[in-house]
Amino acid sequence: MGRTGRTTSVSDSIVIDRSPLELYGMVGDVTRMGEWSPENKGARRRSGGAARVGDEFVGWNTRGRVSWSTLCTVTRAEPGREFAFRVHEIGGPKRRVSARIATWQYTFEDHDGGTLVTETWTDDRPWPDAVARVFDHLATGGKTFAAFQRGNIRRTLRRLKEVAEADVVR
């Protein structure tokens, strides 16, 4: 449980037959996130080159018939070790609202010739539990965000493994 009584952080891991540096390169290229995420459809970075702490990007997401964009800032960028970003604006094509939303983190560890990739979602919303419960139920079709994201993380990691092991890493 998190600071408020609700679960505010969930993680899962998978071993992938690629090096930590190769997998970091895939995940750190946020424009590719839509290749493995069940919700994210891609992103546009505001700067070129390798991702650095402080870089911003806009991500596009879809859940069912609802689509939205987010503004995110890279908070950790250690090639071959860790990539993380904070989501701090959300909205539609004409307007986004600034708010503490979530942090996504990916860690990469050598593991028997492959890499143990761990993905973690942290709920940064400072909302009372009752408000979060109602919103989560509506936004996820009856689940908490922790339960919903647990499934998303599992699907993301499986798909990342499929893409990484089936293709030559770019």
From TrEMBL:
Top-rank taxon: Bacteria
Gene3D superfamilies: 3.30.530.20
Pfam families documented for this protein: Polyketide_cyc2
Stated name of the protein: SRPBCC family protein
Annotated organism of origin: Arthrobacter echini
